[in-house]
């Protein structure tokens, strides 16, 4: 809702400073970073700073402290300078008078009230506006509890502000009742100050000096004073229910509970390991966990080395999206049996290249879920195993809402449609794990706590459902047993697997078996409905059943092409089904215009030389280029045609339009052409990169590329390929079952 005084503040900064600061803000009466940035730039103008910035950084703070160490009714240099203060106060929710350029009693009361809320009224008594308070005034931090913030956390925030605000590198933190990256870092500063570190040495980093100092500051029942306050404050920031103050018997009970939860030695004392787990996500990295994960094959010698280190559970990857790096990242043939034979257990991890929010979406999650199921079955994992799906990037809270949660809903839907053979876990930062779990999409978390700088780790507690806590990379063993691992603490919630089915072989596809027709039909229908394609076709020409029956009616053609070119049937089935499913009334009209161009039959339309047509939406030119490429390579026999000649275009166009078997054969040739660089194509004009030759063990990255190239180049082709991947994995699910019967 618009606020009249915020609107006046926006009008003021635009009218007085807009041309001078290079920005104008929307005059909507709503507070936010844009107006705070504009006011910061306006202040910099008043301070005579030449290069303006949205950031209230060291230069701004130094200039302000030098010229105006205390701003009040006597020292405020001008009316506009005062209006900057008054405008910012309203944007922060405090009374700033009438934005009239007067540092009057209302402004003074507002500043005093804000300093009380910040907890700095003892350090900065009265109504003077000091530089650090001014810096805090020009940001979006709140100094009262908001959004279900707790009074307990707010009390810690206010205490730290009041005690440390005069230290050089300490800046006022929010007092909103929520822990955060800035609050957690300020707690580290506070500890460093109490350890005696000088300004400039204290840096908010959990380094060797801080660690060594804490080893001499164990707190126990009966401890009082600053160290008891710091420890209880750290407990509170980790959402532990203790009183902020002395180390009481109740505190000791809460510490025991926290130590038990985090799998620390249960002593009830605030020892170094407990301090470490409260202050930084990875905690005490000298701990030896009972679990590990890695990108190296587990041999008998390596298994022995791991057991000697106390490891029981080994995380290994179901797939490797790369064909060139980390050749042992994915589970290797015979490895799971070696793990079991040597008394270890394995928990599977599914991870692709997804390193940013744009890689996560509902369709991508559907594809990932079914791909992980297919891979787990290929390796021999039995029903009941939990697969941990990775979110291996610093996902902001907004990223989780917009991308990660829909992605995991897609994973959950895929595994539900598969019959819930496998359970779902999540690998990622603390905030990701907690939010995905709270949404009901996962049953256990594998926490990437080693990435302590991630915004989703710094300031967030360990998730309640944590199973594995990744804390450090180390090398164990020697000789043949030497192996680098990520050392993980295990909670016992997940214990991996030690019994496996025989792995499914990398064998050619075979003819489809009729007993699976209904199941495949229904699974594809569910997937397509989930991405917006109703079974009745909606605004498309063909229904789901018509598309499905057309593709499966030509299964002998698809199987023959698959076997001939070492190509998974699912590649051909996916491209053809997807294109037929998209055929609409516009495509019908274009087809008629192409026929009119070449035959003169029809009228009332603009003639078109060529178009994508038929069940697989192949143009005459693309069909010619793919066939020519494969004829020249010796993959197929036929007559080379000229894509520049109308007669040849018309010849190919009619074949792919009218002959479904020919169209499906052409799909496979287009895939071969695409994989080998698409030379002579127009998307992109210089051609594509050359993939490995067509083979049955194509990685997901290669499959995605082939599917994307079938459609072309650009954002739309990438978006459609993401959705095609889910369809591919459904086809592959049933093809895999049948060929491994």
What would you note in describing this structure?
This protein has 741 residues and is an alpha/beta fold. The chain has 4 domains: 4-140, no CATH class; 175-279, Muramoyl-pentapeptide Carboxypeptidase, domain 1, CATH 1.10.101; 291-490, Glycosidases (TIM Barrel); 514-739, no CATH class. The protein has helices at 4-21, 33-47, 58-67, 79-92, 105-118, 131-137, 151-164, 181-194, 208-214, 226-237, 249-261, 272-279, 300-308, 335-341, 362-379, 397-417, 430-438, 517-530, 544-553, 555-565, 569-582, 585-599, 620-633, 646-658, 660-675, 700-711, 715-739; strands at residues 291-293, 313-317, 345-350, 386-390, 423-428, 444-447, 466-476, 483-490. Strands 1-2-3-4-5-6-7-8 form an 8-stranded mixed β-barrel, surrounded by 5 helices. Helix 1 (4-21) packs across helix 2 and helix 26 packs across helix 27 (715-739).
Core attributes:
eight-stranded mixed barrel, TIM Barrel, alpha/beta, 4 domains, 48% helix, single chain, 741 residues, globular, Muramoyl-pentapeptide Carboxypeptidase, domain 1
Write the layout of secondary structure elements.
Elements: H1 4-21, H2 33-47, H3 58-67, H4 79-92, H5 105-118, H6 131-137, H7 151-164, H8 181-194, H9 208-214, H10 226-237, H11 249-261, H12 272-279, E1 291-293, H13 300-308, E2 313-317, H14 335-341, E3 345-350, H15 362-379, E4 386-390, H16 397-417, E5 423-428, H17 430-438, E6 444-447, E7 466-476, E8 483-490, H18 517-530, H19 544-553, H20 555-565, H21 569-582, H22 585-599, H23 620-633, H24 646-658, H25 660-675, H26 700-711, H27 715-739
Parallel strand pairs: 1-2, 2-3, 3-4, 4-5, 5-6, 6-7
Antiparallel strand pairs: 1-8, 7-8
Helix pairs in contact: 1-2, 1-4, 2-4, 8-10, 15-16, 15-27, 16-17, 18-27, 19-21, 20-25, 21-25, 21-27, 23-24, 23-25, 24-25, 25-26, 26-27
